[in-house]
């Protein structure tokens, strides 16, 4: 068994985004935010060891920065617990707050960060077992595909079959959030003087389901610094729902976040909807068919034929593995449930 | 920057250093902080950093710089929630307790600040403690303790001593478990394990150790030099630190010749499958997970069996065949499966060994101090008195810690080879892979009822899936249920290249009940009869009959929902019956000795969380009419008189009477010296004090004694079968979320008939814990293996799912205390009978709620979701 203790690796503590980005740019170095999963990944070989770049002392990466209209920029080092307990977030972006409250345990939420959650490694048992090589660790196979993949994807996008584990990504996708990334420029001449370029990506652009070698697309030296949510519109409703075995402290099998904009300040029919799901594919997914069908649905009333039809149509989106056929009905019922929840939820 | 630990300045780790947990434990000696899962899942390592709970196993020690750290030792036993945990017995083995207590202390303080002295509801407490797991399942006590502390009931010392004598040591972190013991200079040993499922090992060679010479290897292979599963111990190496030992272990080279392997029990039955055990000798040496000696049985390739038990067997088979031919609607013939359940005590298997002047000194986390000392003496060819085994506290066992396991052997051998004390502690991956499990089963049950509704025939064929081990006994236990109608039960084992099982709490019982009790409910439905009424007709067992009467009056059962349930959330109530043989340990001994004017109770038994330490003191105190606080109970030392192992539901019924006998003998001895000691009844306090002062050094040994009419069997290596069986009836209420396929157990009533209860609260705690473990078995617990290699994939506590506080039903335990008047002491064991029927009752409740009969455990969402649509 390969054993690498994070604490045997050298650790640097940069004090600016530029410095952190530079130290990471060469490749091989590992950013450490809350560190709730890094040690475990190193222990089992899911991440190749390298010098650690601890982000704890980088200023400006923590906390929610609100605009007057309710748009918010959330620093990447903000903890999941801070999201879950922020009353303003619960009021203005309840789908995100609910997703944050539902994941992991109070202790993990207290330490784990928004950035770490979005960029975490997947939970595949093969990735996390040193006895196996796979695409994710430089190998050329996916042992889960031919082996035990009960918790695997039901929308098969590529060689790897591990669903993306981030609950926050599902919520942020439903909120049309953008991700702010500082792009490092390495340690070449004059690098010190330059501040990194910044880029803004949609949440969907952060992931590539066809790439089996990692769980996000950021390059070494790219530093996720913040996520930004646009201002809520009047009459917005949102809900989060997860299907899981245990009631708490559990990874979801399927989860969904729905956000709707209703006419007449929230009491009228749906005019626009966003539905995002997790646990089903290598990336969180939006469900445009369901979103379109939701337009016209009326809060407080049973979902109409269009929505029922769109839920049934989700089966065509699915391409189950031998053991994940159950996720087709589970996806349909989770989405149905979250829609019912949202349309019953009090609007803002 | 320094840190403050428990209010005092302390130096921060100056090197990159270990995790915060290791820093606190190994460098500061604060061993109240436990390491169990190593991945932030179980909460045993919780500390407070600037007042906020944090998993110290994930926290780099250098992150403590400049922070204020509180460990359980820092609460000083004065936090109300600590008193509440002790008073409400919110613990058993105590290994998870420091973590629970620390997190709960923060919750209680915050709750009271916000809500005043009021009680939070169960869901609120479950949310707050969602990051903690208790494998013993002491959740009922924890719920009660947290609520009472919130309500301000424990702001001052409790008036009464807690029901569990060692609770104060456990809630303060003072209790030192084997994993907490490493005298200065102790090296760490690491086991080298097989990475292939089947091979002949040709050569094992080690890299250079600390002194430049090849590190000495402790050989852990059997005589045949074969490995038969991934994870099988091959050898062990030691070094001054765990990191160095792991590096050495990694460098050990194993040359082997691969052999064909089979890891799937269905494939293993095929005629061309590779055969695991080829010779009679190899078959005889196959490990067994039976609790009693496994009777011999024929082998056919990888299938062993059948072991058959029949009562008019040919009649049963003929009736069932005939009914099948006729398509008799009153024939219920169905197949049920269960998954592999892993014991996973939170304290792993761990041993610390050292040699001095030819004597062997051992600390072992074991359920069997006397037996392990006997076996160690035999294995290392020592006179028994030269083996000094001490086991003060044991962090759970559930049947997995009864053997001279590889951690013991490795520690002893490595200590001898290296000339230093050596500790070998399994990590969670090893514990979940190769430290025992309850094997999965595939069981076919056939029941035939007559037109009058009587049971006319029963057959049960059960196949155990115990990897390389044998010993399945699920079917044979079914033969003990439901009267004397014709029946034939057959047990088979299918061996594969996967890790071996160990006996687990009620071995064979839960899978038997899962199959049989679903079938009985199905029959009730076919007969159009209430499931309780059918059992009352079929079941002649007087103890269960008493429990059925109770159930009939129970609001939970009487007022259960009837008719078809609709809507997303559907409630259902189910019940299941269970029994367990009455086993006892005829060699149980308890010594009472007067030392320094104090009465000391001694025996080489051990407390794995059942509470036997408390029971011994309470029995002696009760017998003499004094207070248990006046006695000192010393258990867990092999030098004491023989103590019973903590397994097979035999500890209390064996040790309790021995303690009472010792007290009677002491009274006689004291009377010879002090005439003021009465011949019977309470000994007045002053008389006892004077008598003890005059009796310095007096020692008596109490024995178990025989039951009226004797035992059913002679003593077989400290095991005998007594007359009568314990009984249990569980009634479970569930709420099924038909949308998402989730089952939420809501309430459970556990009726237990095991005769007189020695200590009500401790016994109740055990039965409540059995419900928790049964719920885990029913809903979540399942070892997952790679089908190709047999590698255990669920080797951490995220992928091996045990229930948390939010997953368990509100539980009421009822004791029917009659029926064992012939037993010395009047009561028998209940550790096993209390777990057997839990999952079965839950399954019947799910059927009641949904109208769909589940056949396979665990009842995962993927299995439920398809049925609901």
From TrEMBL, chain A:
FAD-binding PCMH-type domain mapped to chain residues: 1-234
Signal peptide positions (record): none
SMART domains, A to Z: CO_deh_flav_C (SM01092)
Keywords from the UniProt entry: FAD, Flavoprotein, Oxidoreductase
Pfam families membership: CO_deh_flav_C, FAD_binding_5
EC assignment: 1.17.1.4
A GO molecular-function descriptor: xanthine dehydrogenase activity
Superkingdom of origin: Bacteria
Keyword ATP-binding part of the UniProt annotation: no
Keyword match Flavoprotein: yes
InterPro entries cross-referenced by the UniProt entry: CO_DH_flav_C, CO_DH_flav_C_dom_sf, Diverse_Substr_Oxidored, FAD-bd_PCMH, FAD-bd_PCMH-like_sf, FAD-bd_PCMH_sub2, Mopterin_DH_FAD-bd
PANTHER family the UniProt entry points to: XANTHINE DEHYDROGENASE SUBUNIT C-RELATED (PTHR42659:SF2)
Name this protein carries in UniProt: Xanthine dehydrogenase YagS FAD-binding subunit
Automatic annotation (TrEMBL), chain B:
Keywords linked to the UniProt accession: Iron, Metal-binding, Molybdenum, Oxidoreductase
Alphabetized InterPro entries for the sequence: 2Fe-2S-bd, 2Fe-2S-bd_dom_sf, 2Fe-2S_ferredoxin-like_sf, 2Fe-2S_ferredoxin-type, 2Fe2S_fd_BS, Ald_Oxase/Xan_DH_a/b, Ald_Oxase/Xan_DH_a/b_sf, Ald_Oxase/xanthine_DH-like
Gene3D superfamilies: 3.10.20.30, [2Fe-2S]-binding domain (1.10.150.120), Aldehyde oxidase/xanthine dehydrogenase, a/b hammerhead (3.90.1170.50), Aldehyde oxidase/xanthine dehydrogenase, molybdopterin binding domain (3.30.365.10)
Region spans: Disordered: 1-23, 639-661
UniProt key word Oxidoreductase: yes
GO MF assignments: xanthine dehydrogenase activity
Origin superkingdom: Bacteria
Listed Low complexity bias regions: 7-21, 643-661
The protein's Enzyme Commission number: 1.17.1.4
Domain 2Fe-2S ferredoxin-type: 1-75
Spans through the membrane: none
Pfam families: Fer2, Fer2_2, MoCoBD_1, MoCoBD_2
Entry's family note: Belongs to the xanthine dehydrogenase family.
Name of the protein in its database record: Xanthine dehydrogenase YagR molybdenum-binding subunit
């Amino acid at each position: 068994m390969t054993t690498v203790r994070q604490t045997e690796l050298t650790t640097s503590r940069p004090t600016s985004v530029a410095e952190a980005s530079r130290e990471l740019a060469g490749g091989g170095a590992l950013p450490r935010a809350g560190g709730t999963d890094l040690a475990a990944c190193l222990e089992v070989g899911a991440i190749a060891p390298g010098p650690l770049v601890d982000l704890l002392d980088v200023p400006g990466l923590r906390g929610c920065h609100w605009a007057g209209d309710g748009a918010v920029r959330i620093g990447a080092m903000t903890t999941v617990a801070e999201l879950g307990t922020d009353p303003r977030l619960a009021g203005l972006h309840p789908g995100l707050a609910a997703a944050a409250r539902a994941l992991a345990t109070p202790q993990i939420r207290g330490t784990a960060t928004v950035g770490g959650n979005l960029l975490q490694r997947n939970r595949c048992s093969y990735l996390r077992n040193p006895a196996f090589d796979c695409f994710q660790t430089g190998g050329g196979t996916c042992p889960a595909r031919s082996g035990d993949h009960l918790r695997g994807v039901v929308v098969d996008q590529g060689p790897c079959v591990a669903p993306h584990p981030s609950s926050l990504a599902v919520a942020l996708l439903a909120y049309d959030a953008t991700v702010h990334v500082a792009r490092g420029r390495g340690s070449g001449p004059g690098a010190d003087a330059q501040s990194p370029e910044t880029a803004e990506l949609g949440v969907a652009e952060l992931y590539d389901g066809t790439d089996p070698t990692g769980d996000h697309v950021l390059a070494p030296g790219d530093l996720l610094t913040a996520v930004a949510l646009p201002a809520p519109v009047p009459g917005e409703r949102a809900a989060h729902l997860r299907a899981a075995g245990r009631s708490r402290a559990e990874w979801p099998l399927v989860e969904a976040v729905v956000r709707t904009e209703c006419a007449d300040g929230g009491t009228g029919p749906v005019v626009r909807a966003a539905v995002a799901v997790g646990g089903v594919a290598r990336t969180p997914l939006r469900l445009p068919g369901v979103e379109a069908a939701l337009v016209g649905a009326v809060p407080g009333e049973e979902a109409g034929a269009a929505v029922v039809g769109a839920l049934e149509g989700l089966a065509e989106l699915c391409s189950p593995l031998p053991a994940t056929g159950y996720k087709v009905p589970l996806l349909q019922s989770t989405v149905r449930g979250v829609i019912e929840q949202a349309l019953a939820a009090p609007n803002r | 920057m320094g840190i403050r630990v428990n209010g005092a300045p302390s130096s921060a780790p100056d090197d990159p250093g270990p995790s915060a947990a290791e820093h606190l434990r190994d460098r500061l000696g604060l061993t109240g902080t436990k390491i169990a899962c190593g991945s932030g899942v179980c909460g045993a390592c919780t500390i407070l950093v600037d007042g906020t709970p944090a998993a110290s196993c994930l926290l780099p020690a250098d992150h403590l710089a400049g922070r204020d750290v509180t460990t359980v030792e820092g609460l000083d036993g004065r936090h109300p929630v600590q008193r509440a945990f002790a008073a409400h017995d919110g613990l058993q083995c105590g290994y998870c307790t420091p973590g629970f207590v620390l997190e709960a202390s923060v919750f209680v303080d915050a709750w009271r600040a916000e809500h005043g002295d009021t009680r939070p509801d169960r869901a609120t407490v479950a949310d707050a403690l969602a990051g903690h797991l208790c494998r013993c399942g002491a959740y009922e006590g924890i719920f009660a303790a947290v609520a009472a502390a919130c309500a301000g009931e424990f702001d001052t010392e409790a008036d009464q001593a807690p029901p569990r004598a060692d609770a104060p040591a456990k809630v303060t972190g003072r209790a030192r478990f084997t994993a907490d013991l490493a005298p200065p200079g102790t090296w760490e040993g690491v086991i080298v394990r097989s990475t292939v499922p089947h091979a002949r090992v040709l050569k094992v060679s080690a890299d250079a150790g600390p002194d430049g010479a090849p590190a000495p290897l402790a050989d852990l292979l059997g005589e045949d030099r074969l490995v038969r599963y991934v994870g099988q111990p091959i050898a062990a190496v030691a070094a001054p630190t765990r990191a160095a030992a792991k590096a050495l272990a990694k460098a050990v080279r194993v040359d082997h010749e691969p052999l064909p392997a089979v890891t799937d029990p269905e494939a293993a039955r095929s005629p061309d499958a590779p055969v695991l055990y080829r010779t009679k000798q190899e078959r005889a040496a196959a490990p067994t997970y039976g609790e009693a000696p496994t009777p011999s049985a024929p082998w056919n390739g990888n299938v062993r069996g059948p072991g058959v038990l029949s009562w008019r067997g040919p009649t049963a088979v003929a009736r069932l065949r005939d009914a099948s031919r006729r398509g008799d609607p009153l024939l219920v013939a169905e197949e049920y499966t269960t998954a592999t359940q892993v014991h996973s005590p939170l304290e792993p298997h761990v041993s610390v060994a050292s040699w001095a002047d030819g004597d062997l000194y051992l600390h072992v986390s074991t359920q069997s101090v006397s037996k392990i000392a006997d076996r160690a003496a035999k294995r290392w060819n020592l006179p028994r008195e030269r083996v000094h085994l001490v086991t003060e506290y044991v962090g759970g066992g559930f049947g997995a810690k009864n053997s001279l396991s590889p951690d013991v052997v490795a520690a002893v051998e490595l200590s001898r080879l290296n000339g230093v004390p050596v500790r070998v502690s399994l990590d969670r991956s090893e514990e979940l892979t190769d430290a025992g499990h309850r094997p999965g089963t595939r069981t076919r049950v056939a029941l035939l009822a007559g037109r009058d509704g009587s049971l006319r025939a029963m057959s049960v064929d059960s196949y155990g899936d115990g990897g390389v081990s044998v010993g399945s006994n699920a079917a044979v236990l079914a033969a003990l249920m439901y009267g004397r109608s014709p029946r034939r039960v057959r047990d088979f084992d299918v061996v594969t290249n996967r890790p071996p099982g160990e006996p687990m709490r009620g071995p064979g019982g839960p899978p038997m009940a899962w199959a049989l009790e679903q079938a009985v409910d199905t029959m009730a439905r076919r007969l159009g009869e209430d499931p309780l009424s059918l059992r009352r007709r079929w079941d002649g067992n007087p103890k269960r009959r008493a429990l059925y009467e109770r159930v009939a009056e129970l609001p939970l059962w009487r007022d259960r929902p009837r008719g078809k349930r609709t809507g997303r959330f559907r409630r259902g109530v189910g019940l299941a019956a269970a029994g367990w043989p009455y086993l006892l340990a005829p060699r149980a001994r308890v010594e009472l000795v007067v030392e320094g004017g104090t009465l000391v109770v001694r025996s080489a038994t051990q407390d794995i969380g059942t509470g036997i330490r408390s029971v011994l003191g309470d029995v002696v105190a009760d017998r003499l009419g004094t207070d248990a606080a006046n006695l000192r109970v010393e258990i867990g030392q092999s030098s004491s008189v023989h103590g019973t192992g903590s397994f097979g539901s035999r500890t209390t019924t064996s040790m309790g009477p021995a303690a009472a006998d010792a007290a009677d003998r002491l009274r006689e001895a004291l009377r010879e010296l002090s005439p003021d000691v009465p011949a019977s009844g309470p000994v007045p306090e002053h008389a006892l004090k004077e008598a003890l002062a005059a009796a310095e050094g007096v020692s008596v040994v109490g024995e178990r004694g025989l039951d009226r009419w004797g035992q059913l069997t002679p003593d077989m290596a400290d095991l005998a079968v007594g007359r009568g069986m314990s009984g249990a009836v569980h009634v479970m209420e569930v709420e099924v979320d038909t949308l998402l396929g989730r089952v939420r157990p809501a309430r459970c009533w556990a009726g237990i008939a095991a005769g007189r209860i020695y200590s009500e609260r401790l016994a109740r705690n055990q039965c409540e814990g059995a419900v928790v473990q049964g719920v885990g078995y029913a809903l979540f617990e399942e070892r997952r293996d790679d089908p190709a290699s047999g590698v255990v994939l669920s080797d951490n506590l995220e992928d091996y799912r045990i229930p948390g506080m939010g997953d368990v039903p509100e539980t009421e335990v009822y004791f029917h205390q009659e029926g064992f008047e012939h037993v010395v002491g009047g009561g028998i064991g209940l550790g096993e009978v209390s777990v057997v029927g839990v999952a079965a009752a839950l399954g019947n409740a799910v059927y009641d709620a949904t109208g769909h009969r589940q056949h396979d455990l665990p009842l995962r969402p993927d299995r439920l979701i398809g049925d609901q649509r």
